[in-house]
Design brief:
The complex is a heterodimer of chains A (441) and B (180). Chain A has 441 residues and is an alpha+beta fold. Chain A is built from 13 helices and 14 strands. The chains are: A alpha+beta (441), B alpha/beta (180).
Chain lengths: 441, 180
């Protein structure tokens, strides 16, 4: 028995973190240690059950997108796009090239909004040793102002493309209700160039405190969309680092195998192993070679290489993706301007009924909407698999490896490290749509 | 929805309409809430009514559906000199009861994230804006006491019954504030 183990054996303590702060929802961390032995260790999701899928049943297909855009205030564009893709898949709506480009801009806007929110307002306080962004303001005013500026730009981009900062209104079945003008897009491009400069200034600042990210690794399976054409966010095939590309997006349940655990009201998910991870790090691990060069530079700055198995690096992968989104958006705007932006009418459905599946990458990972529509265009069946539920099991497995590695540290440090782990996943527990449907006697 | 701990003591008298001294300012009326959670969406229902009756209101007003914006409200709020928030607020009143209050009138205000479904809440966002010197000059909250915020579309019977009264009251209040 080494010295560290001897200390461990004499240790009795509990870490109970209720409603982890700076996370988009409510989750509890429970750790009980007696005589140095872990008696209980749970990532416990306690959000009340939700009934969004039931709300979708009986709704006309034109209502599905507006309803699902209200599931989450952070991923409302992603839910809208997954919803539209599912509806259009069911009704055989072939969107135009212009719509596909504008939707890619929309998804970049959301990725940028959410990532900078997470990096700047939620994780940066951990890295700078501050209790919140408020206390960061005193000593790191310039850094906070950079974050605020980048956040504002992402919001403005969402306003322009989607008609609102969140809960978009211009995204409709078959296209857009209103397209931005060429002048507006050129203006946006200028702002994106400014954002690139700011991102390049922010990256070394984050790097200077990146040593505060725990050096923890655990090999796991990563799942994300992938495509030969691009760094996948809007479209692609489901891929796993363990099993490669999956042949059919409609059979997503073969990959996302949901199951029940007694200590959580949310469903968990697994595939080739006991758990898998989705989100920015998963996308990076599968598709990093397709990142724009400016984003590859930031990855190099942090020595982030695929496959990286440190979940705390998810935040760095988000910073890399933020940079990618700025550059890729500039490329998409140039394409739109070159081909001439038109005020197009939405494409009409070819079919009246059917089943459709829409899959997109949202900031926290792969999101699935699956609808069945009847001959009158009403939804008879709906299934939504959200990223956070797919990550719950991986958070639990990470904790099970992490705690024995840090058990000799002061309790407060253990508590903070576990909180940082949960925050690294950027879980949006409040948008977990796939809860259990139970009845009682 | 803003939790009850933040709105104590219950404001017995509405702030005077002299609260807004310089009226040629940019005014934003922001509805907050989630229409998928019954009465939590009352702010958006009232906002829609005001939009439908905007001819009866000052042209300087902009109407914003803030939904569950959370921190994304930061830049929305910063765009206006005066912000009027419409939201569900649990102040242990009678369902459908409406209260008007300022941030300063809220007791036990804590700088805390994720107190409500609009995580983080409007008060945290307002505090951060103040720190950044970007806060609107005035912020006034119209809170409606919900009965039911479970996951379902549509207001509760109790709040729905008083909706016409709430709509008239809020229209009159905003007319009075912005035209005085």
């Amino acid at each position: 028995m080494d010295e560290r183990s001897a200390v461990t054996m004499s240790k009795d303590f509990s870490v109970h973190v209720e409603h982890v702060t700076r996370v988009e929802g409510h989750g509890n961390i429970i750790l009980d240690v007696k005589n140095g032995k872990i008696e209980k260790l749970q990532w416990n999701v306690v959000e009340a059950p939700r009934f969004f899928e039931a709300m979708l049943r009986g709704q006309h297909y034109n209502e599905l997108r507006p309803i699902t855009s209200r599931i989450c205030g952070i991923c409302s564009i992603g839910h809208s796009l997954a919803s539209l893709k599912a509806t259009e898949d069911a009704l055989e709506v072939k969107i135009t090239n212009q719509t596909a480009i504008l939707r890619r801009l929309a998804i970049h806007a959301e990725n940028m909004q959410s990532h900078i929110l997470h990096i700047g307002y939620l994780v940066a306080p951990d890295l700078f040793g501050a209790s919140s962004v408020f206390s960061m303001l005193e000593k790191h005013t310039d850094t906070v102002l950079k974050i605020v500026k980048l956040h504002r730009l992402a919001n403005e981009m969402s306003d322009l493309i989607c008609g609102r900062t969140i809960h978009p209104i211009r995204l409709i079945v078959g296209g857009f209700s209103l397209q931005p003008t060429e002048k507006q897009l050129i203006q946006l491009k200028k702002r994106l160039l400014e954002a690139q400069e700011l991102t390049n200034e922010l990256a070394p600042i984050i790097l200077s405190v990146a040593d505060n990210l725990p050096s923890f690794t655990r090999e796991t399976e990563y799942i994300a969309l992938t495509s030969d054409e691009e760094y996948s966010l809007y479209d692609g095939d489901i891929a796993s680092t363990d099993t490669g590309k999956h042949p059919s997006y409609r059979d997503y349940k073969e990959i996302m195998q949901e199951y029940i655990v007694p200590h959580s009201t949310a469903k968990y998910a697994k595939h080739a192993r006991d758990s898998y991870m989705v989100g920015a790090l998963a996308r990076f691990n599968i598709n990093s070679c397709q990142l724009q060069p400016v984003a590859q530079d930031i990855a190099s700055l942090f020595k982030l290489k695929a496959i990286n198995s440190n979940p705390f690096m998810n935040t760095i992968a988000q910073l890399v993706e933020f940079s990618h989104s700025t550059q890729d958006s500039i490329y998409l705007i140039d394409t739109l301007v070159d081909q001439g932006i038109k005020q197009e009418k939405p494409v009409k459905p070819m079919k009246k009924a059917g089943r459709g599946v829409g899959i997109v990458e949202v900031p926290r990972g792969i999101l699935v909407h699956d609808y069945t529509l009847n001959s009158q265009g009403y939804c008879t069946k709906a299934n939504c698999i959200i990223p956070t539920n797919q990550n719950h099991a991986n958070i639990q497995k990470d904790m099970e490896k992490l705690v024995p590695e840090i058990i000799n540290r002061p309790e407060k440090e253990i508590e903070l490290t576990l909180e940082m782990l949960v925050r690294a996943y950027d879980p949006c527990i409040s948008c977990s749509t796939h809860y259990l449907d139970v009845s009682f006697k | 929805m803003i939790p009850v701990s933040l709105v104590l003591p219950i404001i017995s008298t509405f702030p005077s309409n002299n609260f807004f001294c310089c009226m040629k300012k940019k005014i934003g009326v922001i509805g907050l809430g989630n229409p998928l959670r019954r009465d939590d969406g009352i702010g958006l229902v009232l906002l829609k009514y005001l939009q439908e009756n905007k001819k009866k209101l000052s042209k300087t007003i902009e109407f914003i559906d803030g939904g569950t914006s959370g921190m994304n409200l930061l830049h929305l709020l910063g765009n206006y000199d005066i912000v009027l928030i419409l939201d569900a607020v649990d102040f242990k009143g009678t369902p459908g009861e409406i209260k008007k209050f300022t941030v300063e009138q809220i007791k036990n205000q804590k700088i805390q994230f994720f107190l409500s479904t609009h995580e983080p809440d409007i008060l945290t966002v307002f505090s951060l804006l103040k720190e950044l010197d970007k806060a609107p000059t005035q912020l006034l909250i119209f809170g409606v006491q919900p009965k039911d915020i479970s996951y379902r579309i549509g207001l509760s019977k109790e709040v729905h019954q008083v909706l016409p009264i709430l709509q008239k009251k809020i229209l009159k209040e905003i007319q009075s504030i912005t035209e005085s």
